[in-house]
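*Target chain*
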Amino acid sequence: MSTTGNKAGLDAAAWIFNIVTSVGIILVNKALMATYGFTFATTLTGLHFAATTVMTFILRSLGYIQSSHLPTIEIIKFVIVANFSIVGMNVSLMWNSVGFYQIAKLSMIPVACLLEVVLDKMRYSRDTKLSILVVLFGVGICTVTDVSVNAKGFVAAFIAVWSTSMQQYYVHFLQRKHSIGSFDLLANTAPPQAASLLILGPFMDYWLTEKRVDAFNYTFTSVMLITLSCAIAIGTNLSQFICIGRFTAVSFQVLGHMKTILVLTLGFVFFAKNGLNVNVIVGMVFAVAGMIWYGHASSQPGGKEKSQSLPINKSEVEIGLVKSNEGDEKV
């Protein structure tokens, strides 16, 4: 197989991995929170990163992850931005209407574009810009319903949008700057994220829900769902780092709305036409068409290119686990 064909296949595999794990964790968490009342989202995210930390320790002991080092200041900055993203999204969802929350999520694409233009000197062709607008239009039709906003909700959404966009940009930046792959980056960042969120989470969740996580009625089924959520989260965290490392934060955001379409479709399949109407169907058509157009436009010469580039990281060539004594980790 040619190098180009091989890369396309690996890109597709990375993206499918991200879609499957992301949609899976949404469905599990929906059952956990809506059915069993486990509404402690920040603490649950801390458990997700704790499970991811255990996974990285196991892989390192087996020799699948090399011992790598990131400057402490880089790790601290990443963890702060990532935690602001997690808490900001939770607070935004609580303080804003669903419609404004969805608008805030859609605004991450132009913010990610701005970061790439300013920090990476990225340039987009007209077709690439138009395709992004089509995606935004389609997903907006699908998801934006009632729109109301208040001052504190706007501040929460602003923090959530910028911190999430920065976190996703930082994943790509750190992998390229330090020539490390997704597994190595997770091994460096997951432990401090787990520790900080497990300390912060119970207090944040009590502030948001007025319920204590330690007072929750843990049944066998709810514990199994928490365990399943943590297991899927390992793949979700890893696949996010892989995809952003292979693509960019903008591409990750644009193609990420495919997960929104899948969640809406699965909601129709499993919940008897819940939320399905003409607007949703038309929005899906526009969104998918825009994603296809974006994939084509951004891959064309001049569709999306840097005027100044960071050093290319060998780990972007392949995806998979490679023994440390066989060379650098490939992602």
Notes: The first strand starts at residue 122 and ends at 124. The beta strands are 122-124, 304-306. Residues 308-331 have pLDDT under 50 and may be disordered. The chain has one domain: 3-309.
